Amino acid sequence: MAFQFLPAWWFGYIPVTSNKVEAEDQSEDQSLVGRVYVQRRKSRSFVVLSLINLVLFLASAAMLVRILAKPERKPLNAELRAASSYSPIFDMLDLEPTCKKINGTIKPMGSLSIGRHFPSPMTDAIWEEDIELLRPIPITREQVIKLGKNPETVAKLEDEVWGLGDDAYVASLDIFHTLHCLNTLRKAVYAPYYNLTIADETKKHLPAVVHLNHCVDILFQHISCSNNANLVTRHWTKGQEYPVPDLSITAHCINFEKLTKWNKEASIDLNKYIKVMKKPAGVKEEPAEI
Question: Which of 207, 135, 225 is nearest to 176 (CA)?
């Protein structure tokens, strides 16, 4: 035919030589190898990242389990705080609250407390030195405010006198005032021994009788305000026709001996206090009856 003598490029075709075909095949092979390499590399990275995430997840889970399993640390004297008003003593001393059996026997039996001792010089010394003495202890201005008191009228322990810094104010433990009132009633019971006047309404204006009635009222308020909801069981008892109350109940108590020891150690010099703590001129004062 006439067309077969025209050059190939006339029709837009270029002959493919065997060398060019081999080059293209080789290029395709290299491209395939490259894609496989990249794919493997991506797969390896995915595995590594997955392992890292798994390790982090397990570590986080272990920490969470440890936190949840670890018992919450309670503050010092947590049980007492829950049933008491604020006191800085709860932060200073472990009062070791525990349940303790009270000796409620009518007749003196077993180990007797100082409350059953009859008047004597030794008994009075224990009451006066270890039980009813209101020892002054220093507290801070912030603690005064938390107690609901006015720091402007609370007596301050001046640094130049006591060396306690510029943030020391006078306080004392209320429990020892309550025990002082108990001792006042104890002495009233044994009035002849202590040469005390027998109180009656005709003497109600005497300072000693006013003080005695104050103490009766303090004890009444403290006892009726306490969280004592204990029960007294009544038992059939030999020689008794009616059930007899068992007054030896189990009560929730603090370590009173430990508190007494701490109070002595934490208090300031009482003799010095009596000597130097005179009201300075110009101080802010509370009304006569606080």
Answer: 135
CA atoms within 13 A on the CB side of 231: 3
d(CA 148, CA 47) in angstroms, rounded, equals 65
pLDDT of residue 276: 96
Strands 250-253 and 244-245: unpaired
119 domain residue, yes or no: yes
* Domain range enclosing 111: 78-136+172-275
**Around 250, how many Cα atoms within 13 Å sit in the side-chain half-sphere?**
3
Tens digit of each residue's pLDDT (9 = 90 or more) over 136-150: 999 999 999 999 999
- The whole-angstrom separation of Cα 241 and Cα 238 is 8
Domain count, the chain: 1
Residue 156 has what DSSP assignment? B
pTM for this entry: 0.74
Cα–Cα distance measured from residue 222 to residue 181, given in angstroms and rounded to the nearest whole number: 11
Query: In this structure, is the dihedral angle defined by the CA atoms of residues 107, 111, 113 and 114, taken in order, positive or negative?
Result: positive
In a domain? residue 260? yes
The values of phi and psi at residue 63, to 5°, are -65, -40
